[in-house]
Design goal:
It contains 5 helices and 10 strands; from the N terminus they run βαββαβββαβββααβ. Strands 1, 2, 3, 4, 5, 6, 7, 8, 9 and 10 form a 10-stranded mixed beta sheet that branches. Strand 2 and strand 3 form a beta hairpin. It is globular and about 60 Å long.
């Protein structure tokens, strides 16, 4: 039975997150609905590199599924895009090895968070960037970010609802750049906990506005206490940008 790997993007505005939820519109439910049509009523289960919350977007989400259909990858892309809603797009399709798994084979991810640093609302960015009307000290945020790099227990930077017990993760890169009037936060790591990027952003913004010292990041990491870190930044500014796999991204291999 062929295993198909796809890279997809989606606008998270109209979804209650990625994962199937009863009575809710989700990315996974739309994908599986399209695949069921292509497979003439046969239910097809889709696996992804990870879940995204309501309102969170993806530029490079990776999924896989098994099917009895023998279709060329290029035709899969055309067929799926013809059935999917306008807020989901399939960018590439390939035949994966039989044991490939979109989640368990991932060795790293890149997330980006988009901030609108303005006192004035932009109706065209309201679903895609977090409006932040306060001035930020970018150098202080960079100093704080440097202290977060490396391998740490990120309990202070994940939701209290996080179910996994092992909360040690490695952050390889955190950087900032401006793009089309927006401030973009870029995070690259071997894995991320529930709400981790959004809490990191919220905490770094407190540093940028002078409400928290840059050198307090080490104390936060050591505290392993969610209540000590900053607020969780809104979901609509977050994008799952890329998923890395070992065969093509050796910098993430252990």
């Amino acid at each position: 039975m062929p295993r198909i790997k796809c890279i997809i993007s989606y606008d998270g505005t109209g979804f209650y997150g990625y994962q199937v939820q009863p009575g809710k519109r989700t990315v996974q439910s739309e994908l599986e609905k399209a695949l069921e049509k292509l497979n003439k009523g046969t239910s097809i289960r889709v696996s992804a590199s990870g879940r995204t919350d309501a309102g969170v977007h993806a530029r490079g989400q990776v999924i896989h599924f098994d099917t009895m259909l023998e279709i060329e990858p290029a035709r899969w892309q055309i067929a799926l895009n013809s059935l999917l809603p306008d807020d989901i797009a399939v960018h590439s399709v390939e035949l994966a090895r039989p044991d490939f798994h979109a989640r368990f084979d991932a060795v790293g991810k890149e997330y980006r968070y988009f901030l609108l640093p303005s006192k004035h609302r932009d109706p065209f960015q309201r679903n895609y960037a977090y409006q932040f009307p306060y001035e930020q000290d970018l150098e202080a945020m960079k100093e704080a970010a440097r202290l977060l790099l490396g391998t740490h227990d990120f309990t202070s930077f994940c939701s209290a609802k996080t179910e996994v017990e092992d909360r040690v993760r490695t952050l390889q890169e955190i950087d900032f750049f401006e793009e089309n009037g927006l401030l973009v936060f870029r995070f690259v790591g071997n894995g991320f906990l529930y709400n981790m990027v959004r809490i990191l952003v919220g905490t770094l913004l407190e540093v940028g506005t002078g409400r928290r010292a840059a050198d307090s990041m080490l104390q936060l990491l050591q505290a392993q206490d969610r209540t000590r870190a900053g607020k969780t930044a809104p979901g609509h500014g977050l994008y799952l940008w890329k998923v890395f796999y070992g065969e093509e991204d050796h910098q993430f291999e252990n």
